[in-house]
Design brief:
ten-stranded antiparallel beta sheet, six-stranded antiparallel beta sheet, single chain, mainly beta, globular
Length: 757
Amino acid sequence: MTVAAITPLAQYIEDGTTMTFSAPFRYLDTADLIVTRIVHDTATLLVLGTDYTATAGPTDAGGNVTLSTTVPDAKLRIGRKTARRQQSDFENTVRFPAATVEVAYDRNILIAQEQDVQLRAALQVPAGETAPPVGSLSGAIDGTVLGFVSGQLVPVANTSAASAQAVADAEAARDLSLAYSGSSLAQAYISTTQAELSAASASSSATSASQSQLYAAAAQAIMSGRFFANTTDPLTNGVLGLAMTANGSTGTNGTFTGTFTGGGGAGAQFRFVVAANAVVPASIVITNKGSGYTSTPTPVFSASTGLAGTAATVTTGPLTTSGDYLVVEGSGGTFAALYKNVAGVIQSEGLSFPSKAALDNAIASLFYAAPAVTVNGRKVQPTVMSYDRYVSEGIYLDTMAQYRPLELDPTNAVALAKNYYNVPPITFGGRQLQPIAMSFDRYVTLGTYSDTGEIYAPGISGGATDRSLMQVNQTPTGFSIFIAGAVTRWTEYVFLHETGTASGGAYDVWHLKGAWDTALTGFAPSRQQQLLRSDAEVETAVWATAAGASNFVGGAVHGAQVLSSAVMLVDGKVTSLNQTASYTARRIEVFQQSVLYAYGSGNSVKLLDLYTRWVFEGGDIRIGFAVQWPASPAQVQQTYFGILPVFRTQGSGPSGAGSAVEIVTTGRRSPLFLPEDLSTSGYTEVDTTAEEMIGYGAGGYEFRLRKTRGWTYSGRLSYYAPTVQNKFYQNVYGPNYTPVANQLDWFESVISIYNPY
């Protein structure tokens, strides 16, 4: 049969439970499979019949590999290496069977596919060019680089020019900083410090070359575990290896830390995994070699309760040998220094740098300890709080349950105002910085400089292009939220408080009015370029048939929705909805409680209580609805929450003048996401239970509506409606649905608009 173009390689992460994995490619013999397990960067080739079994894989669908044991979090790699042999022998005047020829050809194609995998892992020259010959790579090549000499690629001395050497110094310093894995700030601090040192030394290429090599040696020493508290230990023996000779039994499964006893030394440790109540030999990793061992110590596996019958061979040896570089922490733990073992004598290399402990102390001023607080007699550990000390999320320490005071009841925003912390300004880079947002480990992730008011956002270059940093223009009747597009323009979401009368009755609501592609200068919109989404039925539209309704109620389009209360939070701080202000924010939440009245009742017959929550964050809008039905709920025909109306065609400019532009011409629905033509109003609406709908067009705009919570009722459907502005509808309950008395439901969707400009 023909052989499909399938890459003969599959990778998985073992979860400690799954034993059978797919080999999704064709193989002629189970012996052709290559199964490798990688644990802590150590690869072990598994043996067919001992470590695993395999089913036949004669088709492109392949077969399965079933493990004998599993190692949690290990990487499992399944590949193929077809035996390089010719099994077909044809003679003159005898049969020439097609099946035999087919197998021979198939074998050649499988081998070619495997060679493609190997070639992709090799350095290659562009098509049409010839690779240069590679000279000898034997001999002392440490500290050299590959370069061209007389047309050959050979090792050459590292004697680059001063400018290029500065780059090499910075890269070596980066390697040194990465060796310190305890703190991301420590890594950045070392990298910056060593880059400055390398720049200072760039005036002498010879000196720079030497220094660069020393920094690289220090980084390699740290990453290789040659980091000592003194200059005596490097000359002693440590534990270098541990090999199981008996895996034991009756142990407790899991990952454990093992120790050693005896041997005259101290400090050695290893990590091991117990699965199927026995030690997994491939899982053993020496995590600390220890020092001072004069004889072979004995491994201790007692961390796995009940484990018995283990035996292992322990290998000890010198922690360093002649020629090895090592790092020794200086007196007081402030600095570390580079040394070298020269014929059994530890000699200084004259290079020192800040230790990890010193770096941690240097950045301590950027942290603030957030102690637990008492809420209604219970201790709460804050996990999220705003710069004005409001605790908006936390964990109850007695039950470890989530503490989210505003999730269900926005009125708590005022009642919980006492839960504030005083987070004072700090000095950073010689300037006073007021924290706005901090991570749970107290790192300042967002702030403002007191002298200029500019945003401090580490790791973000040009905050205005970061989609998570919004600009806000607020007035007493509404506000616009500007989210950065891909290049220069912004998506403007208009959020208004409006009152009036529609077909269903009087309304008084906060709601999303529309979305624009906008050019923005500072906080002033210079021009609304393109209307992307209208205000029609964005939040709510309910049709209650039992109440004799002939149309929908909800929002400012259909009416009969009346506001009870509303609260707004900006980055966790309770903020007035009725003010004039301009500011930046990463998260805006608005909570609204309102009542929906039956259609045509003159706002006298309550249909339901509605609690709406908008969250603007990360370039998306998350809209949640808590629906509280009355004691005698009405039967409903259709109920829409979080509708996304997208204009199919719309003129440019605030007034809609100008040529019409196709915004949405194609749609896709989960789970297959096959394209659907939405370019004309003649598109046939198709009901679907899709969790996600996407619309886009030639202009580059993309619109997404995702269901994230509560869409579980029988008969719920979604569909595109091109006849009405390409709306993405979400029917929650389905037709002829009657809720039970006092039923409380919660629904949530996410709206995303991607601006390509």
